[in-house]
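For reproducibility, we list the full input for the iron/sulfur cluster complex.
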Amino acid sequence: MSEAKTKPRRKRAAPSSKPAKPAKRAPSVDNPGKVLKRSRYSRSETYDIFRRFHADNPEPEGELDYTNAYTLLVAVLLSAQATDVGVNRATKNLFRMADTPQKMLALGEDRVREEIRTIGLFKTKARNVILMSEQLIRDHGGEVPEDREALEKLPGVGRKTANVVLNIFFGHPTIAVDTHLFRLANRIGIAPGKTPLDVEKALEKAVPREFGQHAHHWLILHGRYICKARKPECKRCVIYDLCRSPEREKLDAIPDIALRTAQRISDGEALSAS
Ligand code: SF4
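The corresponding predicted structure, in tokenized form, follows.
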């Protein structure tokens, strides 16, 4: 009796498409991801990066509106988890009425709360503005102290706020690490760190002395407008050819802005040598 022929079973084809990899998340303060042990750049490469930023924007400025050290301090305190545009909208009227701690106390917490109600955490922030103003009058004669420790003792004022005020108003070469700067420092690997303080310390070591005053502005602005969280705009990047980020977009050519900026630097060098 012949054996019944059985059809060989077909192997089930493996699914053709692999499950999509989850999109790589940009480093953030809450989720820094894998952090490099050291910078991806040598000292001279770091120097070149800051030279590009300087040539592109020699006098960068913060985007918060203020009229004196006190209004700057208040504006920075209000800017936590809020946009600079939103803070400026809220402080326009507030600072017209109160640009000193004394005037702010006279205005009172309820009125301050009313003025800033369009920005996040406005109740806590209004309370802190009043407490901070009281403390400035009590401990510093109504003046903003030019001292990190004293600034950090004020209600609502943390290290980042103190660094912004010391840098912008008093001209210290401090680095205020916000969400944009933290992401950029880790993404391009110029000052990797697990926490904002780690990044600040790494940048203090890495930034060439002559660029210390403006370094934090350049990095914040670059992170905010070019090397954005979801998708960096590499086509508009002045440091494209210097950048070693694995997230750098592969372009057919170096963007014009980077070439023009590099050219401006070498023209300046040729001029000063002649
Ligand atoms: S080249 Fe792209 S990834 Fe690198 S710093 Fe510029 S925008 Fe960011």
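Residues 70 and 144 are 6 Å apart (CA to CA). The domain at 43-58+175-266 is CATH 1.10.1670.10 (Endonuclease Iii, domain 2). Both points were considered when choosing residues for closer inspection.
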